[in-house]
Every structure is written in C-alpha cells, then in structure tokens.
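Tutorial handout. Part one gives the primary structure; part two gives the three-dimensional structure as tokens.
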Amino acid sequence: MDTWYNRYAVIVLVAIAGVGAYEWVNWCELKSADWAAWVQAVGSIGTIAGAFYLARVGIRQARQEEKIKEMAAFEKQMDVLLSLAYKAKELVEHAWKYRKGETSQKPSLSDTSTYRAREIISLTNVHEMLSAFDVQRIPDFNVAFQIIEMRQIVKRTIEEIKALDGDYFCSEDRFLDNFESLAAHVELVYREIGKARAAVIEENVELANFIS
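Part two.
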C-alpha cells in the first residue's frame, strides 16, 4: 500500500545509505575507474528504483480503473433496481387502493378472477426479476438488504391476493390492513433504494474527479 510510513521508511533507508557511503568510502583516493563504477552502481540503483515506482503507479492506476468499472456496473444495476422497485411499489399500492375503493374503476364481479390473475402475473414477473439479482455479489450491504425486503413484500402481496379467493374487495378488515401495511412498507423500501442509488452516483462522480 502507498502509505506515509512506506515513504518514511524509504527516506530513512536512503539517508542511512548516503551517510554510510560518506563515512566508509574514502572519496579522495578514488580513481577514474572507481568513479565510473560508483556512477554505474548509482545509475543501476536509480533504474531499479524508477522501474519499481513505475510498476507501483501502473498497479495503482489499474486498480483505480477496475474500481471505476465496478462502480459504473453497480450504478447500472441500481438504475434497473430502482425501476423494478418503482414497478413493485406501483403494483402493491394499486392492489391496496383498488380494494379500498380509491381508484376510478373497479372490475365487475364477473371480471375479478381475470383481474386477480393479471395482478398475480405482474407481481410474479417483478418478483422473478428481483430474484435475478445476486445479493451476495452486491457491494453494498444495505442495497442487498433492500432487495431482499422488496422481494418479500411482493411475495407477501401475491399471497394476500391469493388468500382473498372470491373475496376480491376485502370484506374483512384484516385483509385490507395487510394490504395497507404492505403498501407502507414498499414505500419505505423504495425510498431507501432511491437514496442508495443517489449515493452510488455521487460516489462515482467523486471517484472520477479524484482520479482525473
């Protein structure tokens, strides 16, 4: 690692080498061949030191470029995740408001089975897309946690819709309360994912500015 104590150690070693050479070498008695040998030795050391420095710089730049690529890929993942989270939020809130009677239309009793099936299909598709995220490879623990939370909300919403069976409009308050709880939860998770995405974008900008 390129840390202050590494630099300090190099300075100390160079200083010791310089003092040692000054004290132990009788410079006045050196001949032309001796001077040439010393110049060659110093030049070789300088070449090695330069090569070592350039190698370290190259490694550091490679790591920085890899970090930029990783963060850019993560930002794209966050864009997709935010879109999915919004769709999940929309579906869950609509399931609650529809049964609460806050939407402009309700399906007729003859159409409820068809509408219910469409709801389940849409929610299942979102759940499958959320499940495609490998949370173990997500670099941010909070984001991974929010993905799992969103999956669970969508899954529970599907289960609640199925549990209604023929009681589409929630004649029992407990069903409506369950949908209301899910809608409130999905709103919180959606906001957290939005905050996480904004943080990733900000970090990418700071990283790009630092490297440039």
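Part three, for discussion. The first helix runs from residue 4 to 24. Residues 142 and 196 are 8 Å apart (CA to CA).
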